[in-house]
Every structure is written in C-alpha cells, then in structure tokens.
Amino acid sequence: MDDVGANEPGAADGTRSPRLVGRKTVLRAALAATAAIPVALMGGPALARTLTAGGTAPGLTPPCDDGDDPTPEQIEGPYFKPRSPERTSLLEPGMPGTPLTVTGYVFGRACRPLTGVLLDFWQADTNGAYDNTGFRLRGHQYTGSQGSFALTTIVPGLYPGRTRHLHVKVQAPGRSVLTTQLYFPNEPRNTTDTIFDPRLVMTVRDAGGGREAAFDFVLDVPQDPGPGPTPTDTPPGGTWVVGLTYRAGDRVTYAGRAYTCLQPHTAQPGWEPPAVPALWRAA
Ligand SMILES: [Fe+2]
C-alpha cells in the first residue's frame, strides 16, 4: 500500500472545536422543514438510524436550525488533486468494496437550500490507498435546484493513523471553499483519531448489502430567511400516520400514548414514535 504511514498532518493544529456535539435547539425547525421538504421526502438524512452495540442511538447529525453553525472545516490532507472528473458515481467496473451512497443537501445560513454548489469528493479505496496518479475515487458534482447532492461510491478503507472518512470540498458560486471530511458512526478509531470531529459524522444505515449515508452541509453564505410557516398551517395531530410529514412540536398519539415530534420528517414504517427517540419524545 503506497500510502502506509502517510498520516495526514495537522492532527493537533486546532482545527477541531472543543465544543461538544449535542442536540441543538429546534427553534427554527419549522423554517428548516419548509426549506428541507425534499429531505423528508427522501426519508430524513438527518436521522440517526445506526444503533450502537448497546442499542442506543448516537447523536444526531447537527441540523440546520439556527443559522449560526456552519459545517466545520477540516484539514485537506496530502491527497487532494484538482480537476477531478464531473460525476456522481465513483464506481468503476470491478472495483472492490462495500457500496456506499451519500445523499444530502447544502444549505446557507438561513437553512435554505443552495443551488449550483460544487462538491468535490476524494477518498481512499477499500484497502486504504489513494489514487495519486489518476482520478480513481475522485469526482465532483453540483447541487441541483433543490440543493441536493448524491454520491455513489464505496466505503473507504482504513489507513494508518486515521479513522474511516471521506474528503470533500464544498463551494457555493462566488463563495469561499469549505474543505472538510465526513465520518462514519461507531468506528473504533473515531475515539483515537485526533482529527475526527463528531459534528461531521454522517447518518449511516445498512441497505441491500451496502450502506446508505446522509449528511447536510451548512455553508457560511448569507441568505434571506424567506417566508416562514403561515399561521394557517395546522399541525398534524391525532394518531400517528405513516406517510404524514411532521414538524418539530407536532403532537400525536400512538398506542394510546402521546408523543411530541422533535425534528421534521415524514413518517415511515419502523419509525413508530416509541421506536425512534431521536424523532419523538413521549409527552
Ligand atoms: Fe484521507
């Protein structure tokens, strides 16, 4: 492996914030829900669905809720190459590895989606090696009109000194570049990799022999917050129903018990209120 021992520099360069990750307020969840309706339609990328060995859900990917927490920066590392091909799939015939999709949205400071945002991904192969001569497992794409992106690739392998991660540069038109990394939950090395930042952990679940990950970026791009929910909006209530879109603060009953919605999402089978404490709190 040609990059063995090539640990990325800057592990203690102060790029990591000491702020602990935690559930942020949902004061503007209704606004976020308005902007992020496609998120709900896709099944809720911000949901923490991967359970730990102990059966407890990890912390949520920080939602875009209050406009003051852009996605943290991370070091670029030694393997970035400019002029990657434009493509949403990095898969190539015969490429070994566990299939991985990464989907999400790019928001500005007002939690409204940003279109035409460049996302340039690069990563190690399943053996932990980067292609530094060609463009294997490198590619860029742009967010569409809804601010969404979708990457098809493989789960990156481990290499010495680092936990499992993807590299990405994110740039809105005419704005500065955000260079960062995305991480996987429940990785043993997350606790020893000094570059790791829990705010950059994706929501990941197993699916069809592969893995589905989700992450929403928040760029430091000022935005008009736009119209909020109108007073005529009537929150859904009554009995919990699959397919209904709930907003933070909505109250339902399930199996005779009352629950309050904690974050916007569209109800799906398996997401019954008692089963997903990340979404519903017993009232
Ligand atoms: Fe890396």
TrEMBL record:
<dbReference type="InterPro" id="IPR003610">
    <property type="entry name" value="CBM5/12"/>
</dbReference>
<dbReference type="InterPro" id="IPR015889">
    <property type="entry name" value="Intradiol_dOase_core"/>
</dbReference>
<dbReference type="GO" id="GO:0030246">
    <property type="term" value="F:carbohydrate binding"/>
</dbReference>
<dbReference type="GO" id="GO:0005975">
    <property type="term" value="P:carbohydrate metabolic process"/>
</dbReference>
<dbReference type="InterPro" id="IPR036573">
    <property type="entry name" value="CBM_sf_5/12"/>
</dbReference>
<dbReference type="GO" id="GO:0005576">
    <property type="term" value="C:extracellular region"/>
</dbReference>
<dbReference type="Pfam" id="PF00775">
    <property type="entry name" value="Dioxygenase_C"/>
</dbReference>
<feature type="region of interest" description="Disordered">
    <location>
        <begin position="53"/>
        <end position="95"/>
    </location>
</feature>
<dbReference type="GO" id="GO:0004553">
    <property type="term" value="F:hydrolase activity, hydrolyzing O-glycosyl compounds"/>
</dbReference>
<dbReference type="GO" id="GO:0008199">
    <property type="term" value="F:ferric iron binding"/>
</dbReference>
<protein>
    <submittedName>
        <fullName>Dioxygenase</fullName>
    </submittedName>
</protein>
<keyword id="KW-0560">Oxidoreductase</keyword>
<feature type="domain" description="Chitin-binding type-3">
    <location>
        <begin position="237"/>
        <end position="283"/>
    </location>
</feature>
<keyword id="KW-0223">Dioxygenase</keyword>
<dbReference type="InterPro" id="IPR050770">
    <property type="entry name" value="Intradiol_RC_Dioxygenase"/>
</dbReference>
<keyword id="KW-0378">Hydrolase</keyword>
<feature type="compositionally biased region" description="Low complexity">
    <location>
        <begin position="53"/>
        <end position="64"/>
    </location>
</feature>
<dbReference type="InterPro" id="IPR000627">
    <property type="entry name" value="Intradiol_dOase_C"/>
</dbReference>
<dbReference type="Pfam" id="PF02839">
    <property type="entry name" value="CBM_5_12"/>
</dbReference>
<dbReference type="GO" id="GO:0016702">
    <property type="term" value="F:oxidoreductase activity, acting on single donors with incorporation of molecular oxygen, incorporation of two atoms of oxygen"/>
</dbReference>
<comment type="similarity">
    <text>Belongs to the intradiol ring-cleavage dioxygenase family.</text>
</comment>
